[in-house]
Amino acid sequence: MQYDVIVIGSGVTGAMTAYQLSQYQLRVCVVDKRLEPAAETSSANSGIVHAGYDAKPGSNKARLNVRGNAYMEDVCRKLDVPFKRIGSLVLAFSDEEAKTVEQLYQSGVKNGVPGLRVIDANELYELEPNVQPNAVCALYAPSAGIVCPYELTTAALEVACAAGAEYLREAEVTDIQKTEDGFTVTAGGQTLTASVVVNAAGLYADHIARMVGDDRFTITPRKGEYILFEKSMGKTVGHVVFQTPAGGSKGVLVSPTVDGNLYIGPNANVVEHKDDTSTTWQGLEEIKTCAAKSVAKLDMRLAITNFAGLRATPSTGDFIIDSPVPGFINAAGIESPGLSAAPAIAEEVVGLVRASGRVTMTEREDWTGTREPVKRFREMTDAERAELVQENPAYGRIICRCETVTEQEIRDAIRRPAGARSVDGVKRRTRSGMGKCQGGFCGPRVVDILAEELGCEPTEITKFGGASYMLTGKTR
What does the record list as coiled-coil region(s) (predicted)? Predict the structure, then answer.
């Protein structure tokens, strides 16, 4: 198959790049070795839209974080993705930490972060009465926000696919060859050709870059573990609450999620394998202890799950956004604040596609960048629900009782562009299985609905692709 642009990777960077490219009359293909978008780093990060005060002034991270933060609200509005600009606080518990807060403030001013200021203990406790009473001051960044990373990723890819982009799933890239007119890419056993290739392969971006002779950097996986609490804990804090950073990490934080839960984490530990998303007793105890330093009222009996994600930490210490080979573009080493910077990273990548001179960038006259609104039954009024159920009774059949997700919402998630193909795919699009029971009640019905919609047997449905089958066979 011949394309203008192949984007390798359907995490937030690849999806946002495809979204930005969809405004042009281009043949675009997004390829990924996983079955669903946002299946790796973009599925398990903090969901924080950082203000941009802690990145080194002049770096790609600093520049693109602040710009991406400024874009995020409008992007989420167009994509019908929940976004809340709740602000963040960095707590100082000693005079030494207060000096670090002042340094972060100065860095933020250089980076152009709006509204940034250092507040005293009195103002801090007015904003966050549940933080520990021994804090001496805090850095307040009102421009910080929260978003759902996997919903943002999926929404961006939906718009791209609705505009004509193709999405090639479970298609690992095994070879890239330079040709006279572009590149030949072998993915999932298929041979694809393109004038331009964008490397947004996350943890494996160094591996992809080496296929075209670019060995300037390596990617190291750095694991962060989290604990998620039920929604009754969601108002424990109203801001993203950080501690003063140490060791190159932003540290363990306490934050509400955009969906109303509360979580603590992450820690930061280098691991050997790029697929090691296990949680450990030691790691979870570490984040419990660290989080308690910030906030006293953390009832561990109300924790509903724990999970881990991997950051793609580059050897360069900064985002790698360049074109080492004509027509081949890296968007690599996109660790934190990669989610915050994603809209701006995509803009920069599209600029490099244009600068390559290999494709004609003709704008689509009908492109609005908006996604067809998602029907979220749990957010509707009783009157809106009654009207919807009258229109389609399947909206009245609750499948996930914890999160109030209906049968038709699940069917919609499967039928939409780049729709769900697995239980985790449904979960990330609808929140079915994200409540207290973690899918204990709704899981079997989700499997049945997937099988009906995809025209296959329930035994063929997987949790996340590959051999992760939900069922081993029939008993009767």
Answer: none
Q: Residue 163: inside a domain, yes or no?
A: no
H/E segment holding residue 145: strand 145-147
Give percent above pLDDT 90 in the chain.
96
- Cis status of the peptide bond prior to 266, with omega within 30 of 0: yes
Our count of domains for the chain comes to 2
Per-residue model confidence (pLDDT) at position 248: 53
CATH number at residue 261: 3.30.9.10
Place of tokens 């609450």: 241
Phi-psi region of 424 (alpha: psi -120 to 50; beta: other; left: phi over 0): alpha
Confidence at residue 474, expressed as pLDDT on a 0 to 100 scale: 83
Choose one of 262, 290, 314: the last residue of a domain. 314
Is 273 noted as a catalytic residue in this protein?
no
pTM of the predicted protein model: 0.96
* DSSP code for 31: E
Q: Where are the beta strands (DSSP E) in 11-105?
A: 28-31, 48-49, 83-84, 88-92
Select from 317, 221, 320 the least CA-distant residue to 272. 221
Show the CA angle centred on residue 227, arms to residues 430 and 130, nearest 5°. Answer: 105
Q: Which of 50, 207, 239, 273 is catalytic?
A: 50
Q: Does 333 reside within a domain?
A: no
The secondary structure element, H or E, covering residue 476 is none
Q: At 15, phi and psi to the nearest 5?
A: -65, -45
In the chain, which stretches have pLDDT less than 50? none
Residue 66 lies in a domain: no
